[in-house]
Amino acid sequence: MSRITKLQQKLSKLYIDAFLVTNQQNIYYLTGFNLLQGDGCLLVTPHHAIMITDDRYQLALEEFDTDEVVGTITRDYYGSLNQICQGLHLEVLGFEKTISYQLYDLLDETMMADLVPFDNVIERMRMIKDSGEVARLQRAADLHSQAYQEILNHIRPEMTEREVAIELDYWMKRHGASAPSFPTIVASGENAAKPHATASNKVITDGDIVTIDFGYYVDGYTADMTRTFAIGSVDPELRDVYQIVNEARQAVIDHIKVGQHGDRLDAYGRQLIEEAGYGDEFNHGMGHGIGLMVHELPASYGPATDNVILKNNEIITVEPGIYIPTLGGVRIEDDILVTHGGPQVLTTADTDLVVVD
């Protein structure tokens, strides 16, 4: 059953005549067609899937190999949408509530059909990966693992964080990645105590702990991996902290299973960190879903996420961390496929502490 067919079967249960898709990733997920954000929309009815866009995409649509989607070429996307809805006698139109107020105002002014907002209709479909998606995410994870080893081979003291990020970006794109899914984090020394530090012009020096957190698209899907290593001598406390974080990461992975609740999964790792006396220094969730975007449903799981229940063929991250102001921090992150047979770790780069001399 195609993804469009699955969405079509949901329409009557949602009490709507059609669903309007404007999110770029959701259009790609349903159709396989790349439409830039704002360059049109997809209308899904019980019997039709209609791509409404302009003549910049006409040739691409003609070459698009599917009988499921038909194209309408126009410069008035939503005027044409209204005409199509009237022609098909569609009276209730669902839409993604994540649209901008500007677009909602335009729809409200233009559409004759009643408008009904919905949250995460397609995003919930995206949570469960099929075999093709798993294969793409595994390829992305493999490339990330290889890239980390390359960085270890080339990094040296006196490089700046930004230079490391540039080297990583060049290697990833040269070996098949299309673009980063978020700005690469290279945080050294005291900067490593900031969970979302950006790569700066700070020079990496002997004694620094260095955290690299990066995600790149490969065949449309993104992995998300974090590793922390040391340059030269390592502060004894940071060495201990590294071991605690790595044990917490493994404890969470060991308890990933279908039906597991997010808060319980989080507790297996967070409890180890708290018992070691660093509970206040772990200040974010334990992980999140990934796929077409670096943050997908489940958007996050942590101490208060009993409503998150893992399902077969979801892919989530596990990323415990400890951050000590003025000293540095450690985060280690892996991507995990949830299966009935247990967790499968997609990111295979070594998690033992590496010291670069």
Task: Give a description of the structure.
- With 357 residues, this protein is α+β, with helices and mostly antiparallel strands.
- It is 34% helix and 22% strand.
- The strands form six sheets. Strands 4-3-2-1-5-6 form a six-stranded mixed sheet, with helices on both faces. A four-stranded mixed sheet has the order 7-8-11-19, covered by helices on one side.
- A hairpin with a 6-residue loop joins strand 12 and strand 13.
- Helix 9 runs antiparallel to helix 10.
- It is elongated.
- The N and C termini lie far apart (54 Å).
- The model has no long low-confidence stretch (mean pLDDT 96).
Q: Provide the helix percentage.
A: 25-40%
What spatial form do the alpha-carbon principal axes imply?
Answer: elongated
Average pLDDT for all residues: 96
The strand count comes to 19
Q: Which class of secondary structure composition applies to the elements?
A: alpha+beta
CA gyration radius, whole angstroms: 23 Å
> From N to C, what is the helix and strand string?
HEHEEHEHEHEHHHEEEEEHHEEEEEEEE
Number of helices: 10
Q: Termini separation (Å)?
A: 54 Å
Uncertain regions spanning at least 5 consecutive residues: none
Strand coverage percent = 15-25%
Quaternary assembly: single chain
Characterize the biggest β-sheet. 6 strands, mixed
Biggest sheet: strands side by side, in what order? 4-3-2-1-5-6
Which labels suit this protein?
357 residues; alpha+beta; 6-stranded mixed sheet; elongated; 34% helix; single chain; 4-stranded mixed sheet
Topology record:
Blueprint: H1 3-10, E1 18-21, H2 24-31, E2 41-44, E3 49-53, H3 58-63, E4 70-73, H4 77-87, E5 92-96, H5 101-110, E6 114-118, H6 121-127, H7 131-154, H8 161-174, E7 185-188, E8 209-214, E9 217-218, E10 221-222, E11 225-231, H9 236-254, H10 262-275, E12 287-289, E13 296-301, E14 315-318, E15 321-324, E16 328-331, E17 334-337, E18 344-345, E19 355-356
Parallel strand pairs: 1-5, 3-4, 5-6, 11-19
Antiparallel strand pairs: 1-2, 2-3, 7-8, 8-11, 9-10, 12-13, 14-17, 15-16, 17-18
Helix pairs in contact: 7-8, 9-10
